[in-house]
Amino acid sequence: MIDDDNIPDRDAGINGYQKIDRYNPELIKDLSANYHKVLELIGEKPDREGLLKTPERMAKAMLFLTQGYDLSAKDILESAMFKEDYSQMVIVKDIEVYSMCEHHMLPFFGKAHVAYIPNGHVVGLSKIPRVVDVFARRLQVQERLTNEIRDCIQETLQPIGVGVVIECRHLCMSMRGVQKQNSVTTTSAFTGEFLKEKTRTEFLDLISSRLS
Ligand SMILES: Nc1nc2c(ncn2[C@@H]2O[C@H](COP(=O)(O)OP(=O)(O)OP(=O)(O)O)[C@@H](O)[C@H]2O)c(=O)[nH]1
Ligand SMILES: [Zn+2]
């Protein structure tokens, strides 16, 4: 069971998370010192030549991979909403997703397919993958990632409906644990018109078709 009770409002203010200065040299130093300790504790020699800069690299990589905590997906969408009289489905499919599971902090990765039916406003197309990245660059479970993308688009753009499908491989299930190399997890979330079978089927058909 996933316990959602302790998760702060993921997209309020600066997202309800502790505000950090992600690029502060002191923070990078502090994180690096902790990663130095991690290397020691796993049996490595952090002071051997090949590892000298590794704690700092790890610190910078982790700060990059979690930068979604500092960003507001709502602001990103609002920055490029345009009045447009288009009322058919808009789909951005095959958006690369790279996130980390909150249980093991190991990557899960794959594709997101996002659709909406405009209600007087469209959004700049690039903003959809940006929204996916904001939520993916936080510690996640795939189900919550899917719902957060759906809810943000629904609440901000107020379209006639939103559909999100995400397909990912979880390294915590392949590199370790149950060690299944080929399993793919699919999650989906819908609002409005997409709750109707006909619209949902059209969306699912369109994301499974391949243009040559
Ligand atoms: N629902 C869901 N589960 C996830 C996700 N990412 C990782 N998990 C699962 O989180 C669970 C954590 O279970 P635990 O039994 O506490 O952890 P564990 O002993 O490391 O479990 P194993 O992976 O089975 O070895 C595992 O079943 C993972 O597969 C996700 O995005 N969604
Ligand atoms: Zn995991």
TrEMBL record:
Keywords from the named record: GTP-binding, Hydrolase, Metal-binding, Nucleotide-binding, One-carbon metabolism, Zinc
Residues where Zn(2+) binds: C101, H104, C172
Primary enzyme class: hydrolase
Pathway(s) where this gene product acts: Cofactor biosynthesis; 7,8-dihydroneopterin triphosphate biosynthesis; 7,8-dihydroneopterin triphosphate from GTP: step 1/1
Catalytic activity as recorded in UniProt: GTP + H2O = 7,8-dihydroneopterin 3'-triphosphate + formate + H(+)
A Pfam family that the UniProt record links to this protein: GTP_cyclohydroI
Residues covered by the GTP cyclohydrolase I domain: 33-207
Keyword Cytoplasm found: no
One annotated GO biological process: tetrahydrofolate biosynthetic process
Sample GO molecular function, one term: GTP binding
EC number: 3.5.4.16
Keyword Zinc belongs to the record: yes
Record-level GO cellular component terms: cytoplasm
PROSITE patterns cross-referenced by the UniProt entry: GTP_CYCLOHYDROL_1_1, GTP_CYCLOHYDROL_1_2
NCBIfam families named among the record's database cross-references: folE, PRK09347.1-2, PRK09347.1-3
HAMAP family, sorted: FolE (MF_00223)
Family of this protein: Belongs to the GTP cyclohydrolase I family.
Subunit structure: Homopolymer.
Protein name (Swiss-Prot/TrEMBL): GTP cyclohydrolase 1
Gene name of the encoded protein: folE
